[in-house]
Amino acid sequence: MQDFLKDLNKQQYEAATTIDGALLILAGAGSGKTKTITARLAYLIDCVGIPPSNTLTLTFTNKAANEMQKRALGMIQNNCLHPPLLCTFHKFGLLFLKFYITHLGRKANFILADSDDTKRIVKELNGDLAPLPLVLSEISRYKNSQISPNEALKSAHNETYQHIAKVYARYQEFLLQKNLVDFDDLLLLPLEIMQKNPQVAKEVSERYQYIMVDEYQDTNHLQYLLLKQLCSTHQNLCVVGDDDQSIYSWRGANIQNILQFSEHFKGAKIIKLEKNYRSTHTILQAANALIANNKERLGKELKSTQDEGKQIEVLHSFDEQEEVQSIVKAIQALLKNGVMLKDIAILFRLNALSRSLEEGFNRAGIPYVLVGAIRFYERSEIKDVLSYFRAFINLEDDFSIARIINKPKRGIGKTTLDKLLNLAQQHHTSIFGLMQSGIAKEEVSKKAYATLQEFFAVMQDLQKSLKLSSLGFIDEFEHKIGLCEALSQSADEIDRVSNIEEFYGVYKEFIKQNPLLELEDFLNELALRSDQEDVEMRQESKGVEGVACMSVHSSKGLEFDYVFIIGLEEGFFPMTREDSSVEEERRLGYVAFTRAKKELFLSYVDSRFYRGNRTILLPSRFLGESGVAQKGRLGISKKLGSAESEALGDFKKGDCVMHKIFGAGRILEVTKCGKDVRLKINFGGLVREILSGYVSKV
Q1: Three-class SS of residue 514?
Q2: Phi-psi category of residue 428: left, alpha or beta, with phi > 0 → left and psi -120 to 50 → alpha
C-alpha cells in the first residue's frame, strides 16, 4: 500500500480508491476533504496508471488548486512529464476558449474584463436610468441562465427591465467589438461551443476521462451543465462538497446540484466523511445541533477526534460599545496566556458591524486585520497600469485609452476626451483611428492634437519594446510613461507608488516563470485571482499580523484556534425572519461555528445602532437551536410593556429600559425620591436622570 493511503481513515480510503462511476464525497467541515481528494488523484495516477493529462480537477480558487497540485505531486512517485490539470472553473474556461473560441468566429487574443471593468462599462451604458447593482446582477443572471438579449427584451415585464435588456444588448456588442470576455463568459461560451459542436464536447470529454470537483455545493446551474458536457462520454465524475456549507445562493450557487447529485448522475455512490480533525467535541455538538434544524439536507453528523474542550462562552452586552469592551477584555486575557494574534478571529454576518470593533481595538491598542478592504488589483493606480497594458494589446481599445490618456496629466481635459469619444462613435472608429485618418486634426486644438500625436507615438514605441523584450519592457514603460515619477511629487502618494512598484515586481516574476506567455496571458491570469487570495497575498507581503476581522462568508475555508461571532441577534444573524431563506442563514451559522478549533465565543446585544437608528433586538434563535443557551435565559425574555404597567420597585441597576425619545438605555443608578423613583440611565453614551414612570422595561 502506498504511504499516502496509510494515513487515511476508513471512509477517506474508500473515497480515494473508488475509481469508476459517479461519486459524491459528502465531506463535513474539518474532515480532511483536501487530503482525500489529493490522495484520490495520486491513486489514479500512481497506482491505477491513469495518464495525468487524462485527469481534470476543478476548484473555486487558485489557492485551492495550487495547494492540491503541490500535495498530489508530493504523493506521486512516478515522474509526471505533464502534470495533472488542477484549476478553477474559470481558468478552465479561459484555457478552453484559447483553443476553441474560433468556433464562435472570434479571435483567440481576447482579454478578460474583470468585475471592476464590467461595472465601469455597464455604468456608462446604463446612465442613471436603473440601479447599477440591479443591472449588473440581472445581466449576470441572464448569462447564467443562457438568456440572450433578445429573449431578455421579450420577457421584460416593465420599463426598468426593458431598459436592462437594452443595456445587456449594448454590453454584449461592446464586448464583441473590443474582443473582451467577462467572468460569466468563461462558463457560458465554452458551454455554448460544446452544445453547438458535439464533436468538440466529445473530444474534450475523451481527453479528461477522470474529473473531480471541489466545493460542489457552490456550483451554479451553468457549471452543472458544463460538467454534463464534460462527462458526455463517461460517468467518471467525483465531486466533493458539503450541503451544510452551501452559503452562496446570492451569487448563483444552486444547492440542488449536490442534493440531487444521485438523480443527475445515475448510480452515483455517496461516501460521508464525518470525522472532524479540527474542533473540540463541545464546538461540534453545538454546530451539529444548529444545522439539524434544517430540513433540506442530506444528513450527517460530525464527530470530533479532539477532546471535550472548554464550554462555549456567551457574551451578553447592552450595546455594541459594551460588546467590544467584553471582546477586548477576553482577547487581552488570551494574549496574556500566550495566544498569538493570528490565532484569533472575529466573525460577523454584516460588514457594517466591523466599525465598532475597529474603534474599540484602536482604543485598546490591539492590532487587527480587516479582511475585505479594497482589493490590490482594484486600486485606482493599479487599474491605470492595467489599462496601459491592455492598450498595448489593442490601441483601438477606447475603454482603456479613455482612462490613461491624461494619466499622468498631459492637458487632455474631459471636454476634449468626450468630443473624441463622440467623434469616434459617429465615424465607427476609435480615438487612435481618428488620429490615423486625420479627422482629429480638424476637431481639436493644435495643442491637444500635438499632445495626442506624442502620446500615441510613445504607445507605439512601447509596443515595439514589448515585442523585443518582455522582461526589460517594464523599466522602459516606467521610463517613458513615468507613473511613479508623477506620483512621487506628492508625499501623500507614497503608498500608491509602493503599490505600483509591487505590481511591477509581480509582472517581472510572471515573465521569469512563464517566458513563452504573452501580455494578454498575464492580464487574464490577474483577472482570475479571487478576492480572498488577493487579501492574503497583501497581508503576507506586508508582514501584517493582527486579530482577523471578517464576514462569515470570507471565513469559509479558514480555521482559527479562538473565534468570536458577534451580532447574534434576530435581524442581524439570521438576517431574515422568513423560514424559506433562514436555512441558508443557519448554514452560515454552521460555517461560523466550525471555524473554531479550541474555543468559541458567541456575542449578542440588547440594542444596536444601525443605519442611523438605535434598535432594541432579540437574541438570535441560533443560540437556542445550538443548545448553547436556554431560550428563556437569553437576557431579553419579554416584549416592551407600557410605563404605567411597571411597578416602581421593579427597577434595579443594570436593567435595560426604553424611553420614547432617548430610545434604549441601561440603568446605572436607582434613587427613591418621595413617591417617585429617579433613574440614572446610560442611553448609548448619553447619561440622563429620568423618572421611572417615563420608561418601560425591556
Answers
A1: coil
A2: left
Question: For residue 239, is pLDDT > 90?
Answer: yes
What is the rounded distance in angstroms from the CA atom of residue 270 to the CA atom of residue 262? 8
Q: Taking the model in full, what pTM does it have?
A: 0.76
What's at 356, amino acid-wise? S
Mark out the alpha helices in 292-397 (DSSP H runs): 320-336, 354-364, 380-393
- Residue type, position 604, single letter: Y
Question: Is pLDDT at 1 greater than 80 in this prediction?
Answer: no
Strand order in the sheet with 686-691: 686-691, 676-683, 663-673, 656-659, 695-697
Q: How far is it, in rounded angstroms, from Cα 190 to Cα 695?
A: 65
Task: Convert the pLDDT of each residue in 530-561 to its tens digit.
Answer: 444 444 443 443 445 899 999 999 899 899 99
What's the rounded Cα separation, in Å, for the pair 219 and 210?
Answer: 18
- Measured over the CA atoms of residue 314, residue 623, residue 554 and residue 26, the dihedral's sign is positive
Residues shown for the chain: 698
The angle, 0 to 180 degrees and rounded to 10, between the axes of the packed helices 281-291 and 579-593 is 170
* Alpha-carbon gap, residue 377 to 499, rounded angstroms: 10
Mean pLDDT of 5-9: 91
Backbone φ, ψ for residue 36 (5° rounding): -70, -45
Taking CA atoms, 567 is separated from 246, 442, 610, 640, in Å, by 21, 63, 11, 21
- Count other C-beta atoms under 10 Å from residue 694's C-beta: 13
User: Which phi and psi (to 5°) does residue 303 adopt?
Assistant: -120, 125
C-alpha cell at 275: 470525522
pLDDT digits (tens, 9 = 90+) for 455-468: 999 999 999 888 87
Q: 3-class DSSP state for residue 372?
A: coil
Q: Is pLDDT of 268 > 60? A: yes
The DSSP secondary structure of 136-199, one letter per residue, reads: HHHHHHHHHTT--HHHHHHH--SHHHHHHHHHHHHHHHHHHHHTEE-TTHHHHHHHHHHHH-HH
C-alpha cell at 181: 470576455
**Hey, how many other C-beta atoms are within 10 angstroms of the C-beta on 571?**
15
Please state whether beta strands 596-605 and 560-565 pair in parallel, antiparallel, or not at all (unpaired). parallel
- 365: phi > 0 → left, psi -120 to 50 → alpha, else beta; which? left
At residue 7, the 3 state secondary structure works out as coil
634 — pLDDT class (breaks 50, 70, 90): low
| Assigned C-alpha cell, 405 | 490618456
Lowest-confidence segment of 27-31, 240-244, 336-340, 680-684 by average pLDDT: 680-684
Bridge partners (DSSP) listed for residue 346? 549, 564
Hey, CA dihedral for 505, 508, 514, 517, is it positive or negative? positive
Q: Is 319 exposed, middle or buried (0-12, 13-18, 19+ CB in 10 A)?
A: buried
Just list the catalytic residues. Answer: 33-34, 214-215, 245, 595
The mean pLDDT of the chain is 87
Please choose, from the candidates 394, 443, 396, the residue with its C-alpha nearest in 3D space to the C-alpha of residue 423: 443
Closest CA to 4 of 75, 80, 99: 75
Q: Please return the burial class of 497, using the count of CB atoms within 10 Å of its CB with bins 0-12, 13-18 and 19+.
A: middle
Residue 517's pLDDT band (cuts 50, 70, 90) = confident
Q: Is residue 260 very low, low, confident or very high in pLDDT (cuts 50, 70, 90)?
A: very high
426-463 per-residue burial string, b: 16 or more CB within 10 A, e: under 16: eeebbbbbbbeeebbeeebeeebbebbeebbeebeebe
> 298: closest CA among 403, 217, 415?
217
Residue 539: predicted pLDDT: 40
Asked whether the beta carbons of 283 and 600 are under 8 A apart, the reply is yes
